[in-house]
Amino acid sequence: MQFTFLGTGDVRQVPVFGCGCAACVRAQQQPERRRGPTSALIRHDGQTTLLDAGLCHLEKQFAPGELDRIFLTHFHMDHVQGLFALRWGMGPNIPVYCPPDEQGCDDLYRHPGLLAFQPFLRPFDPVPCGDLLVTPLPLIHSKITFGYLIEHRRKRLAYLTDTVGLPAGTLSWLQQRKIDHLVLDCSYAPADSAPRNHNDISMALALHQQLSPAQTWLTHISHEVDNWLADNALPAGVAAAFDGQIIEM
């Protein structure tokens, strides 16, 4: 299985429009430091699975029939905006799996085009996708949101974005499993006040300790976090992911 970080930025992305901070200036000068909307791609056994669809112009990045399925974490615009043009394309339907959000986003449910929305996912009820097994995990966010445990040939990757901490049930469920790679939301530098909707560095490192994965990758990263990372080191086993990075499992 090959897991690719297509985007690792928060809703503002990096560089932030109009911002002159050190992280944004570096990203303007060095394209490899830019961060697009958080999303990922899984290639396994000749199949392709997209995790979230926040990148614009998906219709230009994938050929008709290339995407076997799409899993959405939630329906905030920075995680679904690429679907609005993709849906009016031609070719085979693309199955779309999502949390039980009756509202969805705008008119995607009413006019899905080639998007074949599947029955709402249920917490902890796994979905087999060939040799891939995807289990939805409830998260804590301002919209109904699922993370996913992705299992392939005895290897496990937990994809947990967007969230602030974890529900007790999700935390307990994950602690009972050996996780090889933990992909974890981290949108804020450490702060005195409790963050909203997204983890800060302190919360992300605490979850790394609680879940004990072989490796944790931070994603949904803001320019504030990039500035913090420029002056602070992460502990062993924790790293900030970057756009285009590939994990081989």
Q: Would you write up a description of this structure?
A:
This protein is α/β, with parallel strands linked by helices and 249 residues long. The chain is 19% helix and 27% strand. It has helices spanning 22-29, 58-61, 77-80, 83-86, 168-175, 201-211, 223-231, and strands at residues 2-7, 39-44, 47-51, 69-71, 94-97, 115-117, 127-129, 132-138, 146-152, 155-160, 181-185, 215-219, 238-240, 246-248. The N and C termini lie close together (5 Å). 43% of the residues are buried.
List the helices and strands and how they pair.
Blueprint: E1 2-7, H1 22-29, E2 39-44, E3 47-51, H2 58-61, E4 69-71, H3 77-80, H4 83-86, E5 94-97, E6 115-117, E7 127-129, E8 132-138, E9 146-152, E10 155-160, H5 168-175, E11 181-185, H6 201-211, E12 215-219, H7 223-231, E13 238-240, E14 246-248
Parallel strand pairs: 3-4, 4-5, 5-6, 10-11, 11-12, 12-13
Antiparallel strand pairs: 1-2, 1-14, 2-3, 7-8, 8-9, 9-10
The quaternary structure here is single chain
- Spatial strand arrangement across the major sheet: 6-5-4-3-2-1-14
Element string (H = helix, E = strand): EHEEHEHHEEEEEEHEHEHEE
Fraction of residues in helices? 10-25%
Distance between the termini: 5 Å
What class would the helix/strand composition place it in? alpha/beta
Number of helices: 7
Task: Kindly estimate the percentage of residues that lie in beta strands according to DSSP.
Answer: 25-35%
- Mean pLDDT equals 97
User: What overall geometry do the principal axes of the alpha carbons give?
Assistant: globular
Note poorly predicted spans: none
Let me know the number of strands. 14
Largest sheet data:
7 strands, mixed
